[in-house]
């Protein structure tokens, strides 16, 4: 039996690697398209840019946000909700300013979540005021939080905001760290704190593998434990009036 040529083997390996490579649906190409869209003053050109280079990413982003956070108080079909989220992102596309350093993906993720949170909360209030308390049974297991939890979390966020550059040296790890801090800042707007859902969101925000996220989380946990002990001991993470940490 004739042996396969080395070149043939290499070609097969390249095919396999190419197939396994994960495609980013909202990457730099979409980012560039949004910038071009906002820079253009020609309606036909803008329509072309949106239709061919942006819409698919907006549609997928809306779908992922809805599926990840499981907004439970919408009585419309899934596709209708997704359509409204996409429409809201389009309405706000002109507000995105790439010169401020934020990625389009992160910006529009927040836009989509804010829309869903606002309408989900409004629908919740309607249910609460018009229906019996039985529709709120899922809240019966919620526990009361300590009165000082809010101030502690605020100090935690401030600490990591100031110290991530010292804790992590790699750009990849910093990107993950800041994504986690952003989620902590938005904690009151997040309904589903399911670990898997949060990991999915962080992975989409940073475009890194789960193993790297876990590594960063483990480092942050070590700092968190020290901060908790200091807070319980002193009532604050900051030890002097200047606001310095440690």
The N- and C-terminal alpha carbons lie at a distance of 71 Å
Can you tell me the overall shape?
globular
* Largest sheet: number of strands, sense, barrel closure: none
Q: What is the C-alpha radius of gyration, as a whole number of Å?
A: 23 Å
Low-confidence parts lasting 5 or more residues at pLDDT below 50? 16-21, 132-147, 240-246
> What proportion of the residues is helical, as a percent range?
55-70%
Question: Can you give a write-up of this model?
Answer:
- The chain has helices at residues 6-20, 28-39, 43-69, 78-91, 104-130, 149-167, 171-185, 195-206, 210-234.
- It is mainly α.
- The protein is globular, with a radius of gyration of 23 Å.
- The chain starts with 5 loop residues before the first helix and ends in a 12-residue tail after the last helix.
Keywords for this entry:
single chain; 246 residues; mainly alpha; 2 domains; 0% strand; disordered C terminus
Q: How do the helices and strands line up, and which of them pair or pack?
A:
Elements: H1 6-20, H2 28-39, H3 43-69, H4 78-91, H5 104-130, H6 149-167, H7 171-185, H8 195-206, H9 210-234
Helix pairs in contact: 2-3, 3-4, 3-5, 4-5, 6-7, 7-8, 7-9
Summarize the structure.
This protein is mainly α and 246 residues long. Helices cover 67% and strands 0% of the residues. The chain has two domains: 28-135; 149-234, no CATH class.
